[in-house]
Structure formats: structure tokens, C-alpha cells
Amino acid sequence: MAKFITARYLAEILGITERRVNQISNEKKIFTRDLNGKYQVVECVAAYYKEKYLPASRNIDYEEEKARHERAKREKQELLLAKMKGELHEAATVENVLTNMLVTFRTRMLGVPTKIAPTLIGQKNISKITDIIDREIREVLTELSEYDPAMFADGEVYLDDENDQTLSEGDQGSRGPAANPNGQPVGG
User: Fold this and answer.
1) Long-range contact list for 143-148, CB < 8 A, 24+ apart?
2) pLDDT per residue as tens digits for the range 20-40
3) What is residue 70's predicted lDDT score, i.e. its pLDDT?
4) Same domain for 103 and 146?
5) Is a pLDDT exceeding 70 seen at residue 57?
6) Mean pLDDT highest for which of 32-36, 71-75, 104-108, 159-163?
């Protein structure tokens, strides 16, 4: 095999187009040409595969990676703290609570006609009928509005730093009794 080859032959060897060879040569300066515009085959093939398959490993900045790792650890701890304070909840927990609330609301709303129908029989006063319907709907809506943060308690409260494991409310660990989202000890 020739030591110097044209862009077309280099493209065939690498499995890319001749245009791409020229583009890489001009933009990335991976391939170098001699004075005749030909490429040194061994160096170009090695440089191409080194650039294609090893780009991340040759430019690792240890300090930057360490900073990213520390930032990720801090964010994880912030999320766990928000969860301990009851400011953050698992998506599945929120979905379950809201589903239960809406199913209960739907059931109560569908039961309104059956509940008030007997009291509306024989009523001829429109304002009295409206008041009965309004009172019943407001009762159902009031029940829906009674939000209780305890409904979102999902059990996992804090992280055991020594073992990097999440402890549930029932676990004691080295931190003493577990606390509910309001900061009160559980079970005590």
C-alpha cells in the first residue's frame, strides 16, 4: 500500500465520503496533507479513529469532574432535605393522592342527585330548590378542599450518609427517631 494516498482512497478506507475527508481536514485539522494534497495513510487512519472513539477520554479535566460530582451530591442532599421538610413528594405519591381525591369527588358529585331528589319532590319554589342544590354542591366542594399534607407522607424521610441509603420512618439508624414531614417524632 502506498504511504501517501488521495482523499478518495482515504475515504474508501475510512468508510466515509471524499467530501467528508476534505471537511475533516479543513475544519478539525485531524488529517494533514503533503504539498501534493495527498494524505499519509497510517497517520490519518490512526488520527481519525482516535478522534472518533476516544475524544472524551483524552480531555478529562479532573477538577471539573470533581466539581460536577460535588454539585450532584449537593443537589441530591437538597432534594432529600426538601423531602424531609414535606416540600417535595414522589410523583407516584402525588398521583395516588390526587387520584384518590378525584375519585372520591366524582363519587360524591354523582351521588348528589340521589341524595337531594327526595327533598326536591314537591318543591315549587325555585329559590328553595337552588338553595338545596347549592348547599349540597358546596358540601362536596368543601370536602375536596380539605387538603391534609399527611396524605402525601410516603415513608422515606432522610439519607444515612454513612451507608448512602435512604432510611424509612420506621428505621432508627444513628440519627435517633425518625420525624414526620412536620418535624415531629414518629411513633413516640
Assistant:
1) 143/104, 143/105, 143/108, 144/101, 144/104, 144/105
2) 888 888 877 777 777 778 888
3) 95
4) yes
5) no
6) 71-75
**Residues 98 and 144 both lie in one domain:** yes
Give yes or no: residues 99 and 147 share one domain: yes
Report the distance separating Cα 160 and Cα 72, nearest Å: 17
Note down the domain range covering 12. Answer: 4-58
Q: Which residues pair with 5 in a beta bridge?
A: 39
Give how far Cα 117 sits from Cα of 91, 127, 131, Å: 40, 16, 13
CA distance 37 to 105: 78
Q: What is the pTM of this model?
A: 0.43
Residues found in the chain: 188
